[in-house]
Amino acid sequence: MAVTDQELLEQLQRMVIEAPDLGATWPSGLWTPTEILGYLNARQDRFLKETLLITSWLATPVIAQQAQQDLPDGWLATRNAFIVEAGRTYPLSPVTRREADNMLPRWESDYGRSQWYLTEEIATKQFSLVPSPLTGGVLHLFAALVGNVLDGTGLELTVPDECEPYLMYGVLADMFGKQGRAYDQPRAAYCETRYDEGVQLAQALLKSVVIS
Amino acid sequence: MPYTTTTRAQLRQLLQQRYESSPFWTEIDANLALNQALRTWNLLTSYWRRRIVVGNVPNDPLVPVPGTLAQQTAVTWQGKNMTGVSVAEIQMLTPDWWQARAGADGHPSRPLFWAPVGLNLLAIYPASPVVGSLEVDGVRSTPVLTDDSDFVNIGSEEIDTLTGYALHVCALKAGASFLDRTKPYLEQFVKAAVERNALIKMSRWYTSFQKEGYAWSLVPDAPTTGQPADVPPGGGGL
User: Fold this and answer.
1) B108 touching chain A per CB within 8 A
2) With contacts defined as CB-CB under 8 Å, which chain A residues touch B169?
3) Contacts of residue B99 in chain A, CB cutoff 8 Å?
4) Of A159, A157, A98, the residue nearest A130 (C-alpha)
């Protein structure tokens, strides 16, 4: 049974002593429903990006002799990448722009079989192949995508139920960190610490699956 | 200590004995804190486990795992063990694993390796050209206590740890000094949980926790709203 946005919103209301009504209204006036939904969606996507817990497989065509390839809509972060050229699969390893420039100074204009990739160092939502591919092919990505856009109507969260408490702490950190009457630095700092703990635990769990 | 069957009503009673309900905490608050304690316990300890059977699509190296499983820990193919590795290791082993098929030249005759891609997806090598069954052992979703008669089976020595954590969850509502005072319950909860999970014990997060514990100290700021610092911004009481 997945946790819904309304259940989480009502928990938030109880935490800040607002009248619980599934997140529909925030009578204190310290926050608006739109603000809270904004915090919630941003934190959910941030959690998905930072942990890579929920991963999708994407395939997108590679344009020959072009280093920059567009990433599909909804892409947040890449876990693994590989390219299929002429029926063979080649893994791609992540590198930084500086490493790419040092290894292959003309990697954008000298074409070859791509072996590495850069993300977001050239332009937002672009995936750079190093060196630029000589031929076309298909780029395969295991990637985190944006979560369900939560609108307070009972949609299920994209994060696993076990991580929902940490998502709640993330939203509370934003709520208590809002400048104005709602500002509560100690509790904002506490909630941010707990959110970070959730991210690190989730990352450790995914690694632990491999070890076990 | 023995496993005991403990209902939500019993757990809530134990929690409510640890605080004065008025003005901050209702029965619903207590129930929510207990469910949060159970979820966090399961995340840290992999406490509730189950086995599910999923089918593969022929020639597809990716196998979706339903959301009823919070984490995968072991996989078998038609009852035969598979070895858990990472996607990067499969790629190093066989760069063209994506196209590899069981029984083809140079590849094993059945799926031998599995790798988690995420909690919702696992990769197998080599992909099977025929439909088979994968048995996935893993951590099941935490049981949610929705009625007072709902129960959990849990060691009796852990009941106190769980209600202590639930008390700390409740404290957030009351303010920073309440959080500070209940911090030992949070630390006790983490230590007890980690004793059950050597993998979390080896994690970077726990190494840092061991050095410093929860380093925060929430000495309240001077009130900025004209209210005492411990009164949450939503109001002064229920």
Assistant:
1) no
2) 165
3) 87-89
4) A98
Kindly state the tokens that stand for B60. Answer: 């597809």
Furthest CA-CA distance within chain A: 63
Q: How far apart are CA A63 and CA A195, in angstroms?
A: 40
Q: Answer whether residue A208 shows pLDDT above 70.
A: no
Domain assignment of residue B224, yes or no: no
Give domain limits for chain A.
5-52+148-207, 56-145
Residues B96 and B118 in one domain: yes
Q: Is residue B232 part of a domain?
A: no
Which range marks the domain in which residue B109 is found? 49-140
End-to-end alpha-carbon separation of chain B, Å? 39
Within 190-209 of B, beta carbons closer than 8 Å to A belong to: 197, 199-200, 203-206
Q: Which long-range contacts (CB under 8 A, 24 or more apart) does A207-211 make?
A: A207/B199, A207/B203, A208/B197, A208/B199, A208/B200, A208/B203, A209/B71, A209/B72, A209/B73, A209/B84, A209/B116, A210/B84, A210/B85, A210/B86, A210/B115, A210/B116, A211/B199
Residue B234 has pLDDT above 70, yes or no: no
Give B146-188 pLDDT, tens digit per residue. 999 999 988 888 999 999 999 999 999 999 999 999 999 999 9
- Give the residue from B140, B166, B195 where a domain finishes: B140
If asked whether residues B119 and B154 sit together in one domain, one would say: no
Region A90-111: mean pLDDT is: 91
Structure tokens at A38: 């904004």
| Number of domains comprising chain B | 2
Q: Give the rounded distance of the alpha carbon of A187 from its chain centre.
A: 25
B55/B136 same-domain check: yes
| Distance from the Cα of residue A18 to its chain's centroid | 30
Question: Domain check: are B134 and B158 in the same one?
Answer: no
ipTM computed for the complex: 0.88
User: Which distant-in-sequence residues (6+ apart) come within 8 Å of B201 by Cβ?
Assistant: B194, B195
pLDDT digits (tens, 9 = 90+) for B42-59: 988 888 888 889 999 999
- Interface contact B218-A205, CB threshold 8 A: no
Q: Cβ of B32 and A11 within 8 Å? A: yes
Cβ–Cβ contact B99 with A under 8 A? yes
